[in-house]
Amino acid sequence: MRLFWELTKLSFQRQLTYRSANLAGLVTNVFFGLLRAAVMVALYGSQDEVVGISVQAAITYTGLGQAIIAYLSIFGWYEVMNSIYSGEIASDLLKPMNYFTFWLAQDLGRAIASFLVRGLIIMVIYALVFEITLPQSGVQWLALGVALILSWLVSFSWRFLINLTAFWTPDARGVGRFGFILIWFLSGFLMPLRFFPNWFISLANLTPFPAMVNTVVEVYLGVLTGPALWQALLGQLLWVIILVGTSQLVLRAGVRQLVIQGG
After folding, report:
1. Model pTM?
2. How many structural domains does the chain have?
């Protein structure tokens, strides 16, 4: 466990050294967030509420979406893939830590830094520009914290899984791009899932993607309450278990493939 936290700390410190990249990412996220907020206001028109989501909540949603982009790294993450292609995986597998856990620790440090440097600042800027909504109770804040942690675990497990395709194809980045595009459309990132037809919502709920973004948004906005709230959190936990288990199985198969090829 000590090694895990040391790796997390080193990754956190490394992320903070990229000051220019962090600033550029922050400015970009804020710009597109404000643009998305303007589009959302235009879509609502004279309506104050749509499917239980007010204009104020919809604007807050656009800020939340931009705030968790870097935290969840939903626009691309190819670290494991690069280590497989470069051969670094050979030495990483010899480390006194499970390969999945090794990368989990590093991604945790990256995620925490992104959350602090970009996510929180974006929400503060939104609060200064708009009258955003806030969780109204301690239970809601607690549920939000749990949802954020589980959303990151789902996101990392999915990213790790699609990166493992590098064991079998020389163009795994193409597979990765497709995997990230699925997140944009099915997670509720581009538009709240409640805005879509029921058949699309049902389709999305068959995938792990709503557990990354949509659940966090609906918990924050207070759309989910009572049994529905705990059901959503349990759904996130279930996807974590499924994806982590699948990742371990695929990793073992990939390492066997590497050994067979003389890697």
Report:
1. 0.93
2. 1
